[in-house]
């Protein structure tokens, strides 16, 4: 096996022969990929969810090269599809050199795309600002005179930004997505996380809503539901901060029921107006 110094010399020689090929050399003191520690998922800013990214690794790509390396994307492992120069950041919506739109980064989390902290209580104002900025630059109308590939990438990027924004905008969908990133989900059509007392309470609320004859009665249910959702949101945030994923899952299941009631209340109010 080559020593570290000899390996560096070999890599340097290859770089001289192939200046356009990215080289990922090992750093002194670096450990094998399998020994890199995982970070606390609930107290960090999410980056791309590419394979191995959780361990501080990223794909290095180039002509004849596709492997894991410990260097970051910012160090030039990902190149522009058009000019083949390093993109320099991730996610890269446009090449800094030739300015062409880039394809969506496979596996990137919505938090990373929207430049948000990986937290349940994210800054929704910042989220909206980021959304408007991206859509102004990525909207397909801006690329009607561009190449077919650029039109395709702009449509894909714009659709992805839309989906990311809609997912992160509301606490319920945001929390469910965070559980999904952690390999947990709430199955559709089940009463997972809801006890008999809670389900009985929901039945009573639905009956009261069906029987409501005035705006005042419907508004009373609306305010009660809003208060319960706010309380569940606070409890879910606390659970996620502590890393109590099962508790968060149960709370989010209750939020789904309350959100359904909220939608029914809106329909009822529109009928009574």
TrEMBL record:
Signal sequence interval, chain numbering: none
One cellular component (GO) term of this entry: mitochondrion
PROSITE patterns hit by this protein: DNAJ_2 (PS50076)
Residues covered by the J domain: 109-181
Stored Gene3D superfamilies: DnaJ domain, HscB, C-terminal domain
Pathway this chain belongs to: Cofactor biosynthesis; iron-sulfur cluster biosynthesis
Pfam families cross-referenced by the UniProt entry: HSCB_C
Biological process per Gene Ontology, one example term: protein complex oligomerization
Compartment list: Cytoplasm; Mitochondrion
SMART domains: DnaJ (SM00271)
Keyword Metal-binding included in the entry's annotation: yes
Molecular function per GO: ATPase activator activity; metal ion binding; protein-folding chaperone binding
Keywords: Chaperone, Coiled coil, Cytoplasm, Metal-binding, Mitochondrion
Coiled coil region boundaries: 205-235
InterPro entries xref list: DnaJ_domain, HscB, HscB_C_sf, HscB_oligo_C, J_dom_sf
NCBIfam families cross-referenced by the UniProt entry: hscB
Quaternary context: Homodimer. Interacts with ISCU (cytoplasmic form); this interaction stabilizes the (Fe-S) clusters on ISCU. Interacts with the CIA complex member CIAO1 (via LYR motif).
Function: Acts as a co-chaperone in iron-sulfur cluster assembly in mitochondria. Required for incorporation of iron-sulfur clusters into SDHB, the iron-sulfur protein subunit of succinate dehydrogenase that is involved in complex II of the mitochondrial electron transport chain. Recruited to SDHB by interaction with SDHAF1 which first binds SDHB and then recruits the iron-sulfur transfer complex formed by HSC20, HSPA9 and ISCU through direct binding to HSC20. Plays an essential role in hematopoiesis.
Family: Belongs to the HscB family.
Protein name, entry field: Iron-sulfur cluster co-chaperone protein HscB
Protein species of origin: Echeneis naucrates
Name of the coding gene: hscb
């Amino acid at each position: 096996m080559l020593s570290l110094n000899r390996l560096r010399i070999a890599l340097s020689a290859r770089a001289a022969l192939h200046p356009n090929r990215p080289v990922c050399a090992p750093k002194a003191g670096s450990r094998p990929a399998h020994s890199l520690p995982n970070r606390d998922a609930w107290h960090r800013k999410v980056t791309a969810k590419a394979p191995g990214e959780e361990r501080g690794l990223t794909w290095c790509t180039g002509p004849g090269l596709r492997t894991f390396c410990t260097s970051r994307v910012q160090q030039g492992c990902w190149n522009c599809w058009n000019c083949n120069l390093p993109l320099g950041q991730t996610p890269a919506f446009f090449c800094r050199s030739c300015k062409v739109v880039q394809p969506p980064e496979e596996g990137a989390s919505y938090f990373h795309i929207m430049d948000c902290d990986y937290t349940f209580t994210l800054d929704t104002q910042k989220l909206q600002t980021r959304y408007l900025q991206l859509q102004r630059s990525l909207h397909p109308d801006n690329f009607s005179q561009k190449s077919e590939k650029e039109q395709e990438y702009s449509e894909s990027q714009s659709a992805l930004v839309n989906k990311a924004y809609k997912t992160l905008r509301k606490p319920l969908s945001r929390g469910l997505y965070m559980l999904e990133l952690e390999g947990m989900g709430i199955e559709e059509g089940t009463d997972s996380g809801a006890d008999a007392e809670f389900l009985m309470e929901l039945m009573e609320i639905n009956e009261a809503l069906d029987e409501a004859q005035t705006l005042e009665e419907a508004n009373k249910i609306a305010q009660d539901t809003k208060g319960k959702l706010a309380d569940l949101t606070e409890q879910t945030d606390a659970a996620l901060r502590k890393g109590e994923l099962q508790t968060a899952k149960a709370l989010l299941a209750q939020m789904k029921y309350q959100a359904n009631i909220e939608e029914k209340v809106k329909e009822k109010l529109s009928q009574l107006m």
